[in-house]
Amino acid sequence: MKPTSLAIMLSSAIFVASWTTPALADVEYQIDLTQPQHHLAKVAVTFPQTDTSSLTINLPVWRTGRYQVLPVADGVRLFKATDSEGKALDWHRTASGEWQVKLRKPSSVTVQYQIYANELGDRLRHIDRSHAYLDASGIFMYSPVFRDEAVKVNLSVPKEWRSYSGMESGKKAHSFVADNYDVLVDSPIETGINQHFSFRADGREYEVVFWGEGNYDTKQIITDLEKISHQASVIWDDYPFERYVYMVHATSGVSGATEHLNSTVIQLPRFSFRERSDYLRFISTASHEFIHSWNVKAYRPQGLVPYDYQSENMTELLWIAEGSTSYFQHQLLLRAGIITAEEFFDDLSKRIVNNQHNPGREIQSIAEASLGQWSSTWGDYAVNHSVNIYAEGYMTSLSLDFDLLAQTKLKHSFRDVHRKLYQDFKVPTGYNVSDIKNILKGLSGKDYQAWWSKNVTSPVTLDFDAMLLQAGLQLGYDKEAKTEVNAGLTLTGLYDDLTILFVTREGPAWQAGINAGDQIVAVNGLKVSASSWDKRLADFNPGDIIELTIFNNDQLVKRSLTLAEQPKGELTISPVEKVTAEHKAFFNAWLGVDWPFDTKGEYIKADK
């Protein structure tokens, strides 16, 4: 029977649809780690059948948790592509993290390449004889057209290795499955020679994986991690995960941490766990990353939803994503009884000192810092003209918390803002500035536009004395402490020389025309070294003029510097002389713990 014109049109339409629509199937990854001694691995990824004339293949140019473009693709070599019959396909590179593969006919596509992984400190990828840490953004390529398809990951590893991830395990050993590439890219894999522990808290499963020998106490760490997990309800109504994995790296020197969808990696030098100050650094980091499971992973600013892995993701709200997380991390530890009130206020006082000594707060707003994070650098200019989204974001969160507590007569706090964000803006919905202002107005009945303009979009100097007074607290130095001289510069401390790392804007060294990179040789004509610098300065008084002999651009010159004055000793936070019931109520609404001082203003010792 001869087909009608309509039948021919329908047939053609069906053919065109099948030609342009990719088939639904898993994306399969294979990584060979059987010869890890040179930091190398072989990666293969098979994409389902595609009926287009070319297939775009990408490797992210940044990784989640670090808002900077990185040279990720520099680790890729020996790239090749084949079709379902194993025939080579032509390809060409079109961008730093992009390859275009040409297809002659409808076919699945397998891409193979070598990856070099020796970026442990970047928490991107690291392979050696003892383990492999695999953040998918640095290891596994993807195709945008298949980004939403389910993925399978198979690892070939040395016989004694064990593999863990926040992803679900596959049917075979050393295999994992995920709903899509976004889950894969946010679920790193730790495989190798390691220690593994597990516990259960609030109906959730937790695993802790330790790689590397060190002076950590696994029992204490697991006990405290469990305590942290019970504090989630202080801020949020429920959990965004059923299972969570802590990956702890005891390293030869690098340190840092990165949050992920259902896990985190925390790195510290291997013998930096036992001393109390070291342990507090570790456990506060763990608290920070745990909070990120909600703040950033479960809800985040619109500029980060969905993630664009091939370019910057701009938002002026990174200070909420990171600074607010820093703000809450010690509060959870305090509520859990992991740290004392004295330790909490010791941390806060140090943050206040750093804020007051940061000239950049007079130049850059926290909103501008959020937008500039992708191009931010570290150094003398940054210190003098910039603020940090973590440190300044902490202070902005503190200021907003105190204002909200005061405006609502202690009925609502900054915790309620984050609870509302989790309720209303779960990914894939993102929140913007207007959403934050609307939440604040809904909680307080107040229009926060003026507050936002003063504290977020403008550089701000906070009145810590006035803020803390609301909670019955005051700032001060030891009454017996004296003042000391301040030269307005920071030394590198390397090789016992006096090379200047930072010069404080408008400080004594700045006024004297001294620059970062200059090397001090003598004070008043007498040689000085890094080890004797502080003692030499102690010979003078504030207001004295000293002559520094320095090398500036390899030229020996002299500069006259007038020494300034600064308090000697550490800033402390203590109760005001007359503490009222209102002070204690504010304190409790802020931190959720009882007033920690006795009638003499001393810390009440906790019962053991």
Describe the protein.
The chain is of the alpha+beta class. It folds into four domains: 20-191, Immunoglobulin-like (Sandwich), CATH 2.60.40; 194-293, Orthogonal Bundle (Neutral Protease, domain 2), CATH 1.10.390.10; 294-479 and 574-608, Neutral Protease, domain 2 (Orthogonal Bundle); 483-567, PDZ domain (Pdz3 Domain, Roll). The chain has 17 helices and 30 strands. The longest helix is centred in the middle third of the chain and has 19 residues, at 318-336. The N and C termini lie far apart (93 Å). Mean pLDDT is 93; it is low at 1-23.
**Rg, nearest Å:** 28 Å
Q: Which geometry do the CA atoms define?
A: globular
**CATH hierarchy, class of the largest domain:** Mainly Alpha
Number of strands: 30
What is the terminal separation in angstroms? 93 Å
Helix count, DSSP H or I runs of 4 or more residues: 17
How much of the residues is beta strand, in percent?
A: 25-35%
What is the fold named in CATH at topology level of the largest domain? Neutral Protease, domain 2
The CATH superfamily of the largest domain bears the name Neutral Protease Domain 2
Give the overall average pLDDT.
93
Major beta sheet, strand line-up: 4-7-2-1-11-14-13
CATH architecture label name of the largest domain? Orthogonal Bundle
* Sheet with most strands: 7 strands, mixed
**Amount of helix:** 25-40%
Low-confidence stretches at least 5 residues in length (pLDDT < 50)?
1-23
Summed up, the domain count is 4
